[in-house]
Amino acid sequence: MIYRNIFLICVSSLLSVLIIIGIASCGQSTDTSSSSNTTTTSDTILPSIHYFNKNPSDQFLVSMNTVVDGHMYRGKNATDPHTGGHVYFSNESSTWPLNGVDTPSNYPPIFAVADGHVNKVDTYFAVADNYRYGINLSIATDEDNTISFFYSIEPFIDPEDSSFYEPYILVEVGDTVQKGDIIAYMYLAPNSGPNAHIHFNLLSSNNGPSTFLAPIIFTDSLVSDFSEHISTENGGYRNFDYNKNLGHPWMGDCLGYKIDASENPFSDTSEDCIK
Which of the two residues, 174 and 43, has the higher pLDDT score? Predict the structure, then answer.
């Protein structure tokens, strides 16, 4: 009898302990879907823009073999300033979409040029008769300013549908991307000539008006490759400071051509030619 009572007391004590542990564990969440699984803008640590001066990106915004022409960023000191580099496409031979299958992934891919986060997406924006879409990708900081790489994607058509381009955009505001990720596709209308393009530059802003900066964040070899690809020998005719027929100069591989000090992301100096 004594042993039986001792046994019952032990069993009762053990059950009590287990019940207490169970109650305590009920207050602890087992949900693993915490905010750490979704990186937000505030969690994203961006490097100083000066990082790209010594560690330039080896990822261009598009594949070179999809480009038919282009031009460099023409700074404020150029004959014909234009605050953006351009890459041009053509669909005169109906190359796109690939294999004739009209789905966004069968058009030229557009890449993240660096790690960063998306701070703005335009799905349908009118510029005269040209209805474009676009992405701002935050890639760096400069003191209190955020530096973004701006993609203005311009098919040079009016699709007459404000949602037409949405399937060609793969990111949303707040998304974190890595260098080389496909963030959009370049829509090209059937039989369209070589006017469709992407305008690209850097933007510096701090919750106010943006300052345009030259997009001189790429490796020298990548810029030289771009310059060669759009050369007159390869059929290019746009990489001139205004008009080659008027004797204006070829801009060569100066992605920042005759930029003012205010357009230089790395220093307070003007530059005639900087990659």
Answer: 174
Beta carbons within 10 angstroms of residue 185's beta carbon: 22
In the chain, where the domains are located: 44-74+83-215
Phi, psi for residue 224 in degrees, rounded to 5: -65, -40
Cα–Cα distance for residue pair 206/119, rounded to 1 Å: 12
Q: How far apart are CA 57 and CA 212, in angstroms?
A: 19
Q: How confident is the model at residue 5 (pLDDT cuts 50, 70, 90)?
A: very low
Mean pLDDT within 94-100: 94
The CATH number given to 44-74+83-215 is 2.70.70.10
217 and 113 Cβ atoms separated by less than 8 Å: yes
pLDDT score for 43: 56
Q: Are 182 and 171 in contact (CB under 8 A)?
A: no
Nearest-Å Rg of the Cα atoms of the chain is: 27
What is the 8-class DSSP label of residue 266? S
Nearest Cα neighbor of 85 from 135, 32, 149 is: 149
* Residue 140 pLDDT exceeds 50: yes
Question: Residue 187 forms beta bridges with which residues?
Answer: none
